[in-house]
User: Fold this.
Amino acid sequence: MNEHPENYEDVSVYGLDADVEEQLLLAHNECTFIWSNKEGWPVGVIMSYVWRKGRFWLTASGQRARIAAVRRDPRVCIVVTSTGSPLPRNKAITWKGTCVVHDDRPTLEWFYRELSDALYGPGSKMADGFVDFLDSPRRVVLEVTPTQRIGYDGAKMGRATKAWMATRNEQGDK
Assistant:
């Protein structure tokens, strides 16, 4: 990475470090889930998720359009930002991946508990109640296996920009 960037043409040098990414994925529970509809248009919604076993796990009712879409074309995208998480702002990760739809009882039961505990705290009354709430007849679990990542750390970009601006001002460039 150049010590002082001349512009923002290549922001890939401000990538999210793997350890920070893992912290973000475990600390947060909300993502943007993106798929393609029948016409090929990208469509996205905000969904709750858990990051377990190196994969994203989400849920929806099986009659939702996104379920038919990922059964037709399993290529999806997930975006997670640090906004709303306990981590500092300006961090983001985008993953392209493939999605498998599960409706088997062991996966449903495992996921219901994992999501409920992530949202409401392990063993809480709210978590226990949410497990029951999720257990509906058409519910499925989406398992997204990441295949390609784009990470961004705005703090790195901010530090580099500040240093560049200071050097520029010292040189009399305004």
Observations:
- The helical segments are 18-27, 65-72, 105-120, 125-134, 154-170.
- The mean pLDDT is 90.
- Residues 154-170 form the longest helix (17 residues).
